[in-house]
Amino acid sequence: MPTDSDEPVFDDDFVKGAAFTEPSAQERFHRPGRLERSRARWAGRRRRRTRAGGGSRREYREPSHRRAVVQVIAGVMVLLLISTGLWWLNRPSPQDGGASAIAPAPTGAPPQPPQGDPFAGSPAAGYTDGEAGLQMPDPKAMNGLSEADMALAYVRVRKMLIAANLDPATVYQRRPDALAKLLDPAQRRDFTRDLDRKGEHNSRDWMTSFAAGTAEPALGTVKVHGTVAASKSRDQGTAGVRVTADHLFVYAVRRPGRPETVMREVVRRVTEVFVYREDGAVKLWITKSDRSSAPSSCSADDGFVHPVYPSDPGGGMPNGQAQDPYDQSAPIQADRGCEPVTRV
User: What is the predicted pLDDT for the residue at 265?
Assistant: First the structure.
């Protein structure tokens, strides 16, 4: 399919050299004279006789000038078909970096940002895309857990991080079903009971979910950067391993239906999971999940992420010393409240 670059360019030189052969008003309204009408009637009678089969078998032929016109038209059509065929054979393919046909986006596919790379100019530009950024350490036997136990635990921890921070249903639709299925049945009951509960026990804090009507993905990619570490631990007298995951998730978001509002939302998530053996099985229990996000509203406290766009009038005033949301050198301190940021 030709693209805009294949369309003819009607520049000034072309327009000046072009001629439009339309009959004048006088020619359009000219009545045929007596001789012209006589010739027309005679030609009509000859055609009717030939088609009816009466008189001599005289074959009607197109006048010579009409035959010439038909031949010219036929020649033009042949040239047009040849040129179209040559263009089709030599058209640029998408693999060559050329133009390609525009196909409708799959249902649910996220829309693309209108201008450039939304991660450009930030540390996130060098981060890994999506799930590939969630790298687990090499499994090692530790504190009563075998190497195989730890390998299984890392697989399950990674799935939890994906379900809590990368699953579109969790992040943008506020439905953490995938995360709930990965929890221990006893913890799942608590998680479901406390979901969106008012107060400090709200289990919505365990995941990244944008508040309804505040954000939609500007890209299908989330930039991820962080570490996972394991250490010996003991919880309520049970020996096991504490797996600590500390990651930055950088989302390219925009106001729903507003492509001109694309921006970055930086979410830091620190999750601790206690891994232990019980009744011959490897068990996992989330013991901690802290989060910081920027730029976010200072007045909202419902467990959701409330992004603040550059055009927003406010959303609570930050106070204290400005912080770098990309800095993971210090632990998240929830009691410090809402602080300004140096960059996003």
Answer: 98
